[in-house]
Amino acid sequence: MKVSELKAEMDAAFRAVHERFETVNERFETVNERFKTVDHRFSAIDQRFSELEARITAEGERTRRHFDIVAERLETTFSAMLVVPADQTRQLAQNRSEHTTFTGILDDHELRLKALERFRRR
After folding, report:
1. What are the distances in angstroms from CA 54 to CA 21, 59, 60, 67?
2. Alpha-carbon distance 97 to 90, whole Å?
3. How far apart are the first and last CA of the chain?
4. How much is the pTM?
């Protein structure tokens, strides 16, 4: 094989490789365009997630404020229910004392009735 034949063969092989690289470059251009579209779509999705996150955060804050208000109302209601005025406390103590006295009187009365019944049977 002569050098000129070898050069012609190598030139043809390089042209074929060059043509293949051109095809590959065209395909990369297409892929790059598709990636630009995908990047744009991801940016839109990121924006939507940011908006959604902001809405969730805002709703959480509103819910927390509402819950705090409800909890304060319940605390106030329960506190009002648990507070017993001093005059009611005195009345309760007096009722207990009178109940003890009354129970003692009834016990004595029961004893007297039994004694009378025993006396009558004789």
Report:
1. 48, 9, 10, 20
2. 11
3. 159
4. 0.43
- Please enumerate in sequence order all residues whose Cβ is within 8 A of that of 84, keeping only pairs 6 or more positions apart, or say none: 92
- Parse the chain into domains and list their residue ranges: 1-83, 86-122
Tokens describing residue 103: 């129970």
Q: What is the pLDDT of residues 45-57, one digit of tens each?
A: 999 999 999 999 9
Report the b/e string of 63-87 with b at 16+ CB within 10 A: eeeeeeeeeeeeeeeeeeeeeeeee
Q: Which residues contact 92 (CB under 8 A, 6 or more apart)?
A: 84
- CA 45 to chain centroid, in Å, comes to 24
